[in-house]
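Chain A, query sequence.
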Amino acid sequence: MKKAAIITARGGSKRIPHKNIKEFCGRPILAYSIEAALKCGVFDTVMVSTEDEGIAETARRFGADVPFFRSPEAAGDFASTAQVVLEVLEEYEKRGSAFDLVCCIYPTAPFLTPKRLEEAMTLLENSGADCVQPVVRFSFPPQRCLVEEDGLLRFKWPEYRNARSQDLEPYYHDAGQFYCLRTESFRRQQALVMEKTLPFILSELEVQDIDTEEDWKLAEVKYQLLHEKQGE
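Chain A, predicted structure.
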């Protein structure tokens, strides 16, 4: 089966300027996603989809392909990631290349490892699922959340106020790193999370949202602590 890694790296970040090539612990953050995809040994192609020449230059410098640039329609503020992946697949097909499985990887995923990518892609291939999505469990049970009403705090669901955490159903959220997709299913459903999506559960140590400058600083500290612990 032919497999491609598609790293989606748009140039128009508003909250963190030049986010996708901003230096993270000594290297452009995009380099971490490229390195994980290349080192896992799974993919026939590791490419970066971008409309930005600076991102393209960085991507090539770290070993990724940038065989074509993203269209203006797929580079806009309201373009979906699914739209970007579909455009990449269609452009490759025009050039005579087709892929059975693809992995859409975000460019700001420094905690992503080759091992995790290999495990997730193997799970997708062997399971027959449409998609494998990495998720992480909420650290505090959402069933016991509080809301503000008329200036006062209330339990959103009072029936859970005295429930033990271990007795509540675990809830998960998107880890924000990648999606492993079966191309045939993706083209039919045109969505990243599809009908038969398997969870790929990560620990909190492997996940960090990076949407603000504060998130960025926290992620760098977390990354350094994690790699010190691993002796790297």
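The chain has a mean pLDDT of 95. Residues 226 and 232 are 9 Å apart (CA to CA).
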